[in-house]
Specification:
single chain, about 450 residues, alpha+beta, 6-stranded mixed beta sheet, about 60% helix
């Protein structure tokens, strides 16, 4: 009963820190892409849009589509992510309680309740919070040897995020090396195989997505990014001091590895260790081999188990020193959460309202002082008529332009301020030329 009460308390905390942003923050670039998928008129339309514009499988978008079709406003569909985040934190407590003392399980739950990537994705219109939840459910299903549940979770997870398949691989390693799972080995393996059938049917679309460079923003292999990945799952940024900037993520990674070794002393604990390090190492090795797939947010499924590994290491420290260290770590988590959330996201919806209030029309260029792509999709979504916007090239001096920078809108008459021009593809003024989509990146590079 104490474990369930603790899990419920952690879930309440997790939901509370997500729901405000989920209901009130403006959509950012990737969320606009999700909204356009969910706004399709049919599940088939959802599939076509996912294949055309996304780098993930379609299940989460189907779920969002159903919720939206039931009458939930598009912004409020993000409550699904907030609920997934709350259930993930609760699930971590209940799963960890089988491996570590309850106070350590509470700490692991708080890490997933307050960690930066978990909170950020728990209030957005994307699939990552669901990915984390399904990863925890995968561990439950495997550890408790429930073939039906395992098959369902594998099917759902593999159609939610491609990195989930790496977690499935870790589970298969455990199934075939675990004495605990020996009597159920064939049934569990069959459940995994059946669960992967829908994913296998989706593979042609996966190949199409990859060939169209949906992960082109990821650079070549960088060992520092691998080193820092777990730190940046739980904190918004690396420490500023030069020593801690390098040392802190190394110490955390070492603690996760050491804690995983501690967990591996038990058969059931080894499953947790494999789920913490397996997807992380596999993704890093694939990136090293060439394919540019390594992205911190895709490792969110390994995060809960990494948190449990650190807590397992802390649990070795004799009381009361261990509990004191745990309390200090909990304080750091709270501090990191507060620090990471001091700066609110850009209010693209308010910027759009300010543009309209200042007299903007589709004929008027918008000068963006900031990331062109970060502003384009949200302004397309929030401006009246949802105009298609592209990069504009000046032809002469415009009668008026509107400047967007640092969250403010300024109207300039008879000027051409410095910045990237956003113009309507159809109704722009004669003083600018609209570039086709294929030439935007070259145009941005030329104006840099």
């Amino acid at each position: 009963m104490r474990a369930w009460l603790t899990a419920a308390a952690v879930a309440i905390v997790a939901f509370a820190v997500r729901i405000g942003g989920a209901l009130h923050y403006a959509f950012w670039q990737d969320e606009v892409a999700s909204a356009r998928v969910i706004a399709k008129s049919s599940p088939i339309g959802v599939v076509h849009q996912v294949a055309r514009t996304e780098a993930t499988p379609p299940l989460w978008y189907w779920l969002g589509w159903v919720v939206h079709e039931l009458g939930v406003p598009m912004t409020d569909v993000r409550v699904v992510s907030a609920l997934a985040g709350a259930l993930t934190a609760a699930g971590v407590v209940l799963y960890a309680e089988r491996l570590v003392p309850l106070w350590a399980a509470l700490l692991a739950g708080l890490a997933t309740a307050l960690g930066w990537q978990f909170v950020f994705h728990g209030r957005e219109l994307r699939a990552y919070a669901l990915h984390a939840l399904l990863s925890v459910l995968l561990a439950f299903a495997a550890a408790r040897r429930r073939p039906v549940l395992l098959g369902v979770v594998v099917a759902a997870g593999a159609l939610t995020n491609y990195f989930f398949v790496l977690s499935v691989g870790a589970v298969l390693v455990w199934i075939w090396t675990s004495a605990h799972a020996r009597s159920s080995r064939r049934r569990l393996s069959a459940a995994v195989a059946i669960g992967l059938v829908p994913f296998a049917a989706w593979i042609p679309e996966l190949v199409f997505q990859y060939r169209h460079h949906r992960a082109s923003f990821i650079g070549s292999f960088d060992g520092r990014e691998v080193r820092d990945a777990f730190w940046l799952l739980f904190a918004r940024a690396l420490p500023q001091t030069s020593v801690l900037h390098t040392l802190a993520p190394i110490l955390l990674l070492a603690a996760i590895v050491a804690g995983s070794l501690v967990l591996s002393l038990s058969d059931v604990g080894r499953l947790c260790a494999l789920l913490a390090l397996g997807p992380f190492c596999a993704a890093a090795l694939i990136w090293l081999a060439g394919p540019r797939i390594f992205d911190i947010r895709n490792l969110i499924g390994a995060g809960p188990f990494a948190a449990i590994a650190v807590c397992a290491l802390l649990a070795l420290v004799p009381r009361p020193a261990g509990i004191a260290a745990g309390a200090a770590l909990a304080g750091l988590l709270v501090f990191g959460f507060v620090l990471g959330n001091r700066t609110k996201p850009i209010a693209y919806d308010r910027i759009a309202s300010s543009l309209v209030g200042a007299g903007w029309t589709q004929a008027d260029p918008i000068v963006v002082r900031g990331d062109f792509f970060a502003f384009r999709s949200p302004l397309e979504w929030y401006l009246p008529g949802r105009p298609a916007l592209t990069l504009g090239v000046p032809r002469g001096r415009c009668a008026r332009v509107f400047v967007v920078g640092h969250g403010k809108v300024v109207r300039h008459d008879d000027r051409r301020p410095h910045g990237h021009l956003l113009v309507s593809t159809e109704r722009h003024a004669a003083c600018v030329r609209a570039l086709p989509e294929s030439k935007i990146r070259a145009g941005l590079a030329g104006s840099a």
